[in-house]
């Protein structure tokens, strides 16, 4: 892992990402911001595992409140968002208030959305507490909520004022949630940096090392700086997501114990690696390596039980498509990708069949 040199701060579009153990920086930021009030948004799990580490540091302040919501994707909807807005009103939030989003991607997406629309926008910062939100959701300025099972269909591009990452939060994260974030790290290696992929495939990933997390954030950050509003290169981050999102949505609707985002993306990455082998020159050897690494980490999912036509229908609804054509980011080799590959239903079904045959 000699390739990576960790700094205290990664500069994003127009805000800093503090790394690592950055609660000190959070406290300084809040005090120097002279906010009229601030609000810490948590869910029921981060309230237990993460809030004490933050709240204790503000023991001498009397101008903040805690807003707690239920944990899980089901909370990321307009009803919970209205609940947040109402609590902000009840607690006397004004335009000089701050929201601190303390949690995973559900908290950062919805807290960011609630803040970016409350009184036409108030300041917010992210304190990401899951691996997925550290390497992905808290970087890049997308906020959003779901409607029914359509994910992130309502949202804004609004950057946080800062992001504060602390590795320590990951120590209470369940193994399945670590694996969920790991899928995005693997993706970052596959689309942009073969050296990260190589480092990941040879590491103990029970709890990925801080250096690997930093490296992964740097890749995502570089992409969003180049293309903040997803007109071009940011689409590279969609590798594995065209098929993965459809599998995830279908699982959320039908499975008793639905797939996590990362588990679905892992399936999507195998299918889209297969499409890359068929369409954009990924070698058979590299396809087999990707399959070997991913299948060793993630449990096999039974795609035989899923109607392929239903999945293709879900892919068509994806907001990334234009003119009714299904669009994929595919790999040309490990560490390099190609945007905007139109895939037919027959090709997509073939890739699903390939996954099922493994
Ligand atoms: N905005 C973006 O660019 C972007 C990118 C990727 C994903 N997302 C969104 O992120 C969401 C998924 O994020 P997630 O996987 O972090 O889900 P999540 O926020 O639901 O967190 C997963 C679970 O971990 C718990 N948890 C969080 N921190 C913990 C800790 N330190 N210890 C113990 N438990 C903890 C949570 O309570 C929850 O039960 C999705 O809604 C997705 O759409 C957004
Ligand atoms: Zn993702």
Overview of this protein structure:
The protein contains 14 helices and eleven strands. It is globular. With 358 residues, the chain is α/β, with parallel strands linked by helices. The longest helix is centred in the C-terminal third of the chain and has 19 residues. The two termini are 32 Å apart. It has a four-stranded parallel beta sheet with strand order 4-3-5-6. The chain has a three-stranded mixed beta sheet with strand order 1-2-9, sandwiched between helices. Bound molecules: nicotinamide-adenine-dinucleotide and zinc ion. Zinc ion binds next to α11. The site of zinc ion has 5 residues, from α11.
Layout: helices, strands, pairs:
Blueprint: E1 9-11, E2 16-19, H1 23-33, E3 38-43, H2 44-49, H3 51-55, E4 64-69, H4 78-90, E5 98-103, H5 105-117, E6 123-128, H6 131-137, E7 145-147, E8 150-154, E9 163-165, H7 175-192, H8 194-201, H9 210-226, H10 241-254, H11 261-279, H12 284-297, H13 308-317, E10 327-333, E11 336-342, H14 345-357
Parallel strand pairs: 2-9, 3-4, 3-5, 5-6
Antiparallel strand pairs: 1-2, 7-8, 10-11
Helix pairs in contact: 4-5, 6-7, 6-9, 7-8, 7-9, 7-11, 10-11, 10-13, 11-12, 11-14
Bound molecules: nicotinamide-adenine-dinucleotide (NAD) and zinc ion.
Characteristic terms for this protein:
four-stranded parallel beta sheet; single chain; binds nicotinamide-adenine-dinucleotide; 358 residues; binds zinc ion; alpha/beta; three-stranded mixed beta sheet
| Shape category | globular
Q: How big a fraction of the residues is strand?
A: 15-25%
Largest sheet: 4 strands, parallel
Q: What structural category arises from helix and sheet content?
A: alpha/beta
Alpha-carbon distance between the two ends: 32 Å
Poorly predicted runs are none
Strand order of the largest sheet: 4-3-5-6
- Total strand count, please? 11
Helix content: 40-55%
Spell out which ligands are present.
nicotinamide-adenine-dinucleotide, zinc ion
Instruction: Specify Rg, calculated over alpha carbons.
Output: 20 Å
Query: Average pLDDT, to the nearest integer?
Result: 94
Helices, by number, come to 14
**Order of SSEs, N→C?**
EEHEHHEHEHEHEEEHHHHHHHEEH
């Amino acid at each position: 892992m000699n390739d990576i040199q960790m700094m205290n701060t990664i500069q994003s579009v127009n805000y800093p990402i503090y790394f690592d153990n950055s609660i000190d920086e959070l406290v300084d930021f809040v005090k120097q911001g002279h906010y009229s009030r601030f609000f810490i948004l948590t869910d029921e799990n981060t309230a237990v595992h993460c809030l004490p580490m933050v709240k204790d540091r503000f023991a001498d302040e009397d101008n903040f409140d805690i807003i707690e919501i239920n944990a899980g994707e089901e909370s990321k909807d307009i009803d919970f968002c209205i609940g947040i807005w109402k609590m902000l009103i009840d607690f006397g939030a004004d335009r000089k208030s701050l929201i601190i989003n303390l949690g995973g991607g559900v908290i950062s997406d919805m807290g960011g959305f609630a803040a970016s629309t409350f009184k036409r926008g108030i300041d917010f910062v992210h304190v990401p507490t899951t691996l997925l939100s550290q390497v992905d959701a808290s970087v890049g300025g997308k906020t959003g909520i779901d409607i029914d099972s359509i994910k992130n269909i309502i949202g804004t591009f609004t950057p946080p004022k800062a992001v504060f990452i602390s590795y320590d939060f990951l120590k209470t994260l369940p193994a399945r949630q670590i694996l969920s974030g790991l899928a995005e790290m693997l993706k970052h290696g596959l689309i942009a940096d073969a050296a990260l992929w190589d480092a990941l495939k040879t590491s103990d990933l029970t709890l990925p090392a801080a250096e690997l997390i930093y490296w992964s954030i740097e890749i995502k950050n570089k992409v969003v700086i180049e293309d903040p509003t997803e007109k071009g290169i940011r689409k590279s981050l969609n590798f594995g997501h065209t098929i993965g999102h459809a599998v995830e949505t279908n699982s959320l609707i039908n499975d008793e114990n639905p797939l996590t985002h990362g588990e679905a993306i892992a399936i999507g990455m195998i299918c889209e690696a297969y499409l890359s082998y068929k369409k954009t020159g990924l070698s058979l050897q590299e396809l087999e390596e990707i399959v070997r690494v991913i299948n060793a980490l993630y449990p096999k999912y039974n795609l035989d039980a899923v109607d392929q036509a239903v999945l293709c229908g879900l892919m068509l609804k994806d907001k990334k498509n234009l003119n009714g054509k299904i669009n994929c980011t595919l790999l040309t080799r490990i560490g390099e990708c190609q945007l905007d590959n139109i895939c037919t239903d027959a090709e997509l079904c073939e890739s699903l069949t390939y996954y099922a045959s493994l």
